[in-house]
Structures are given as structure tokens and as C-alpha cells.
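Table S2 (continued). Query chain:
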Amino acid sequence: MVKHLLNITLITSVFMILGCTDNIRSFPSRSEQGASLLHHRTWNLTHIGALEFRPESGHKMPSMQFDQTHMRFSGFDGCNRIMGTYQINGQNIQIGPSAGTKMMCHNNQQLTIRFNNALSKVTSFRASGHTLKFLDRQGQLLLQFEATVQPR
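Corresponding output:
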């Protein structure tokens, strides 16, 4: 009787361990989770560097969207529509080359310049929950965004 009970306990333990092992492998890695958070969302600018960004009355919010299927991004820099390609390798991201409209925006010209300069220096990202941070080579914050979910 004790031998039978011991065999059942051993078999149950083996199945539990194997079941947990398969579940662990099915979860995406931390970098895959970060990359998957980029897509199907509109990312609205909240910070340029350490400075919090608040749009002036009547101005549109700079934003970005990422298309996983075509590895392209699109967005708005505060004055112009922007678009281009991107590549992700773990937590590293290469943005560009990019293109955009060339509107003359007297009130937002400095924002456009600061946004695009920061975007050109991005080498890595951190995505967690509803926050996306673009960082430079030294890990310094360049741009920070907050997400809104896009319909699929």
C-alpha cells in the first residue's frame, strides 16, 4: 500500500514538473514582451529628455505608431507627419531612415526640431505597461510616451 502511494506521488510530481516547464517556455521573453507592447498602440509624447511635455492649447500631441507587419512607423512630430522604417533586436531599436512632410509651423518649430533630433539618437527602448521610453547609447532618456490602444 505504501509503495503504491509512493508511486502515485512520484508520477503526479513528474507530471506537475513537466506541466510547469511547458508553461514557462510558452511565455515570451522580457524583450519579446517589450517589442510586442510597441504594436497596436498610439504612443503620445509625455517627455523630451527629463522635461515633461504639455502641448500648447490648440496644438496636436506628437505621437508614434509601429506596424509590426511591415516594420514601419508613422507619427506626428508636433508639426509634420513622419514615417519610416525600424528594426528591433532585443531591447535595441534602429529607427530610420525616415521621411516627413515639410510644413512651416511658426509656433511648433522648436518642438519639431527637438523631437526629430532626439528620435535620430535612439538606440534602445524600454516598454512596460502603458509607457515607452527611447534611450540613447548611454541609457539616457531621450523621449517618453504614453500609450493608447488602437483598434485591430
